[in-house]
Amino acid sequence: MKNTFKTCAIVAATSVLLVACGGGNDDDPTPSEQSGVLTVTSASSEGLNGVYGNGSLNLTDVDKKNPVGSTPELCTFKFDGAGKVGSSATAFGDIRYRPDASGTYQVFMTFDGKEYASGESNDTSVLRDSNQIRFSGKTLTASDGSNGTLRVTGVVPMRPIRPAGC
To answer: Which end of the chain is less congested by CB atoms within 10 angstroms, N or C?
Structure first.
């Protein structure tokens, strides 16, 4: 009886610690030592134009998700830590692409607190050999319905260890 109680107590304590410490949850980007840079041009809000990413970006691991419904299987990851050069503004994002695809499926990026997105693969490249997502004048549209747009050129790194196809 004592051994069962000890075992239950240890399991309960471990569970509490895992929850308190995040339980291995990789939803928040962590330092990566991989540099990335994004240049914003042609923004509806001129204050967003500029270079974001003057050092290493924070990244999550790339996860493969196979949601229920009509959404296809996707490789996903997030980044943050892209500070705007000469400003306190920052950029962060959520990038999604299909396994073995050459372009992105969906991109969500927030510049200085305003989210922009695209669900088209044009002007993007998934470069697995160099662990990068490349943007070549990619037009993103504001998610708030304001029809604001901007163009993004640059590179967001990916962690080198990824699920098959990602």
So the answer is: N
Q: What is the pLDDT of residues 20-57, one digit of tens each?
A: 333 444 589 998 988 999 999 999 999 999 999 978 89
**Nearest CA to 153 among 140, 131, 134?**
134
8 A C-beta contact, residue 89 and residue 114: no
Specify burial of residue 144 (Cβ count, 10 A radius: 0-12, 13-18, 19+).
exposed
Could you give the CA distance from residue 87 to residue 113 in angstroms, rounded to a whole number?
Answer: 13
- Cβ atoms of 12 and 39 within 8 Å: the answer is no
**Cβ distance 130 to 22 under 8 Å?**
no
d(CA 157, CA 36): 6
In sequence order, what are the residues at sequence separation of 6 or more whose Cβ sits closer than 8 angstroms to the Cβ of residue 127?
133, 134
pLDDT digits (tens, 9 = 90+) for 98-107: 998 999 999 9
Report in angstroms the alpha-carbon separations of 1 from 5, 9, 11, 13: 6, 12, 15, 18
Q: What pLDDT, on the 0 to 100 scale, is given for residue 17?
A: 35
Instruction: Determine contact, residues 152/39, Cβ cutoff 8 Å.
Output: yes
Closest CA relative to residue 124, chosen from 150, 111, 105: 105
